[in-house]
Amino acid sequence: MRTLENFRKNDYMRAMLHIIDGDRSLPLLIVHDLLATDAYYNTLQNLQVLEKSETVVLNGIKRYSSVLMWYLAVDSYMDKILQICSQIYGQDYENLVSHKIQHKPKLIADLLSLDQKGFPLEVLSEKLSAFDVLHQQMTGCSKQKAALSSTYSFSNGIYAINQSDGIQAMLIASEVFELFRNCIPGVDIMPSVEVYMWPEIYFEFVDVLVKKIMIPSISDILSKLQITSDIDLSTDFKRFKPSLNVGRYRFSLSRVTMQHSNFSLPKNLPATQIVEGFEEEYMKKHTK
Q1: CA-CA 20 to 30 A from 97: which of 220, 236, 260, 275?
Q2: Helix (H, G, I), strand (E, B), or coil: what is residue 278?
Q3: Do the domain assignments include residue 287?
């Protein structure tokens, strides 16, 4: 009998970035896709909860996880670029990723010799600094209040977090994703989100989903509830051109698209609602 733990070895849909040096290729596992997928769906579900608000504004049961996952996604994204830099420039990876999240955009731009003229990285650094403070509050590492400005803001305490924080986190992450998506020549490293259209799985760039689904949904939900938001919902973010400072190296992306038969489930499994059934039965006590 197979165990659920066995399926951890299933590499189906796993994404890799390859650093190519002549006839040698170094594969690097891409994790930020998985984190961005979780962040996207957590935020989407929180908006669905907000839409259902009637007499009380519902904050969403995934308001904390949405913020945390966007933070992890953007940090992992920049760390992957720094891992590439460590390989092609011979620098210590642990030292590079030890920098605070707000300092990583400038570090990446300097390492890759990107043309920074017209790119206000100091403003992005301020946003990431506020994001980092909130992350530290949520993980118990700091009691410092998150910074506020007219263009971006986070809650001053974790108990006050609502969908607004998830939206702000999503937009800051999106700005970083867009900024560096083409910085590695020959590849687009914008995170991809798994889109489930059973029985098929597709992938969409997170920036497309934010523009086509998230932003219009936010606008319409706020309009329905007759409330507004101070957050700038614009997604017109700048993008660096590919680095010209990668020497002899080339780069490519790959994804495992075929599942090994060892991980296949039996065909024609019955449609069930097991979790819903147990939950509904237990919750009957609140309706008596």
Answers
A1: 236
A2: helix
A3: no
Look at residue 194 and tell me if it is in a domain.
yes
Identify the helix (H) or strand (E) that includes residue 33. Answer: helix 32-51
What count of Cα atoms within 13 Å lies in the side-chain half-sphere of residue 256?
A: 13
Domain extent for 152: 14-261
Please provide the distance, in angstroms rounded to a whole number, between the alpha carbons at the two ends of the chain.
42
In this structure, is residue 8 part of a structural domain?
Answer: no
| Residue 150: pLDDT band with limits 50, 70, 90 | very low
Percent of residues, the chain, with pLDDT higher than 70: 95
Instruction: Identify the residue with better confidence: 144 or 33.
Output: 33
For residue 146, name the pLDDT band (cuts at 50, 70, 90): low
**Whole-prediction pTM:** 0.91
Structure tokens at 217: 């949904």
pLDDT average, residue stretch 21-30: 96
Name every residue whose Cβ is closer than 8 Å to that of residue 139 and which is 6 or more positions away in sequence.
68
SS3 97: helix
Neighbours of 207 (CB within 10 A): 18
Position 286 in a domain: no
**What SS3 class is residue 186?**
coil
Q: How many domains does the chain have?
A: 1
CB 251 within 8 A of CB 185: yes
Residue pair 105/128 in contact by the 8 Å Cβ criterion: yes
**Phi and psi at residue 115, in whole multiples of 5°?**
-75, 110
Cα(45)–Cα(66) distance, integer angstroms: 9
Phi, psi of 44 (to 5 degrees): -60, -45
Determine how β-strand 250-255 pairs with β-strand 200-205.
Answer: unpaired
**Phi and psi, residue 24, nearest 5°:** -110, 145
Handedness of CA 106, 66, 84, 23 (dihedral sign): negative
